[in-house]
Amino acid sequence: MNEINENTASTYLAHHYGEIKEEINELSMRKNFAGIFQAIVNHINLLLSKGQIEKIGVKIKFIGWLHKRGNEYVQYIIENLFVRSFEGMKRRCTTEQWIYMYQLIPNNLKHVYQLQNTNYLTQKTSL
Q1: Beta-bridge mates of residue 4
Q2: Residue 1 domain-assigned?
Q3: 10 near 33, Cβ under 8 Å?
Q4: Are 101 and 56 in contact (CB under 8 A)?
Q5: Percent of the chain scored above 90 by pLDDT?
Q6: Residue-range definition of the domain harbouring residue 39
Q7: pLDDT (0 to 100) of residue 15
Q8: C-alpha dihedral, 97 to 118 to 41 to 33, nearest 10°
Q9: What mean pLDDT is predicted for residues 43-64?
Q10: Looking at beta carbons, which pairs linking 123-127 to residues 24 or more positions away fall under 8 Å?
């Protein structure tokens, strides 16, 4: 099976994130794949502020699917923009919301998140 590149991923993302489709298409035309993920993170934070946790779960599951099938660059952007945003989401959630949302995160993204936090804690304690 062919890996999904950033152009194909952009098309999938525009379809799946219909609420910000125009912004995704504009960023895609400018070849700004990282910008697309920043727009997605902003959109998810907006949903979080509105308490739409179930919607966020569906959105995160799609990103997990894309991460599994994406090429190295797609995975890199997801890991370094999207997954890194989880810590900010966690701070914006109540404990109950975060527990619920964390259960919805696909295992491949949870694994990346846990590695990032382990590395951060290791660096912090060695200072």
Answers
A1: 70
A2: no
A3: yes
A4: yes
A5: 87
A6: 6-125
A7: 97
A8: -160
A9: 94
A10: none
| Chain Cα centroid distance, residue 99 | 17
Asked if 12 and 66 touch (Cβ cutoff 8 Å), the reply is: yes
pLDDT value of position 66:
98
Sign of the CA dihedral running 78, 80, 110, 108: positive
Overall number of domains in the chain: 1
CA dihedral 26, 88, 68, 101 (to 10 degrees): -110
CA 121 to chain centre: 21
Give the global pTM.
0.88
* Residue-level length of the chain: 127
What token pair was written down for 58?
């569906």
- Return the structure tokens found at 3: 């890996």
Q: Which residue is listed with tokens 């990282």?
A: 34
